[in-house]
Amino acid sequence: MNYKKEVLENKKVKFTAEIDAETFNKAIEEAYQKNKHKFTVEGFRRGKAPRKVIEKNYGQGVFFEDAIDIILPEAYSEILSQEKDLEVVSRPDVDVVDVTPEGAVTVTYEVAVKPEVELGEYTGIEIKGEKTTVSKADVDAELNKALDKASRMVEVTEDRAIVNGETANIDFVGSIDGVEFEGGKGDNFDLELGSGMFIPGFEEQVVGMKAGEVKDVKVTFPKEYGAQEVAGKEALFKVTLRQIKVKEVPALDDEFAKDVSEFDTLEDYKKDIKARLKAEKVAKAERANEDALIQQVVKNAKIDVPDEMIEYQAESMAREFEYRLESQGMKLEDYLKYINMSVEDLIKQYKPSAEETIRVRLTLEAIIEKENITATVEEIDEQVKKYAEMQKKEVEEFKKTLDAREQFYIESDIKTEKVLKFLKDNNKIK
Q1: Least buried of 167, 306, 382, 418, by fewest C-beta within 10 Å?
Q2: How would you classify the pairing of strands 126-127 and 428-429?
Q3: pLDDT beyond 90 at 430
Q4: Residue 329: left if φ>0, alpha if ψ -120 to 50, beta else—which one?
Q5: 154 DSSP β-pair partners
Q6: How many CB atoms lie within 10 A of CB 47?
Q7: CA 95 to CA 76: how far, in whole Å?
Q8: Alpha-carbon dihedral sign for residues 53, 58, 64, 65
Q9: At CB < 8 A and 24+ separation, what contacts does 197-205 make?
């Protein structure tokens, strides 16, 4: 196969390939073998008619389309194998230009290629870092969470009315115009008054009831209510207050600390909470500071990202999202139907983050190249060893499972880690 390369504008390259008649005829024969069972020819059992007979009955080009589908990816792969220095970043836009009577095929492939990066300042930058101080309020918030988790609901035994903030254990039956409606009935239901869980006006009318009391509660469903059959309608609920419940919160003392932690005193427990929050804030700040530094370095660079590259990256993100859904037992088409979106809408939604991902990757790659950052054999071996241990495999056994792409990713991860360290070492976070 012969081809010629043409460099176009907007970081695109066009390949025009001439596929010889012999190659095309082999593809036609393959297409015939694959599809001959689909044709009915008088005098022959299905799938037994010779190729020439099928072509005579259905037309000389009956297998052309399938044959072209066979040779197009093969020809494209052959071109890429010879253009090893060319980094293609999009799917090819394919056009079959001509099919000669002799069987030769002329086809073009138009692709976007990796754009050049004009680096701006990437050292000597100053950014304002996130604070990592832990306040008394932060510690108190954690203590309150622990208290809430350790608390329990207890029944009020004294004869009194329920107040806002307490939990009403109720039975209720709802009706509209004297007819009960679906979903309007509940037994032994715990409702925290003031939570806004029920229809507006319902909880307010339960306030003041006593245990054992029965009351008619009148409400109007909101017009935008999810169930259309009751939306905007007046309803009557017959409510029985079975119990009044309150939250019993343990005392915040040494005994509480012993119950919920490994510490004997509340003071030691507080110190541990403060240390843990400090470590969490430091880790969060490091990530945020690293992101802010990268964003500034990317902002300083100039990159003309082809639309095709963004489209391709957005499609990849959509596919990753589909795989995550499948791992949770959900189909993408069902999810999109639920949120009233199409696949095209999803891809469009991913485009801004796709472009940002591309800009970050290309900028870091440009710095890696300029600073001659490499991954040594020892570093690669150490990373492979870690992956092998994670999968509980012997190193040599794990190495045999790695293909060229996986080896490339391991090397890229090491370089990325090193370039991030380079940026943090050569810039200032105030």
Answers
A1: 382
A2: parallel
A3: no
A4: left
A5: 246
A6: 13
A7: 12
A8: negative
A9: 199/235, 202/237, 203/164, 205/239
Greatest alpha-carbon pair distance for the chain in Å reads: 101
Q: What is the mean pLDDT of residues 387-399?
A: 86
Q: What are the helix (H) ranges across 339-376? A: 343-370
Dig out the tokens for 428 from the structure. Answer: 């200032």
Q: Would you say 223 and 231 are in contact if contact means Cβ atoms under 8 Å apart?
A: yes
Query: What local confidence, expressed as pLDDT, does residue 358 receive?
Result: 95
**CA-CA distance, 238 to 217, in Å (whole number)?**
6
CA distances from 359 to 119, 321, 336 (A): 11, 21, 28
Only one residue has tokens 């039975």, namely 171
Q: Which residues contact 156 (CB under 8 A, 6 or more apart)?
A: 162, 166, 211, 243, 244, 245, 246
Q: Which two tokens stand for residue 311?
A: 């489209």
| Cβ–Cβ under 8 Å, residues 107 and 1 | no
pLDDT in tens, 334-350: 999 888 899 999 999 99
| DSSP tag of 290 | H
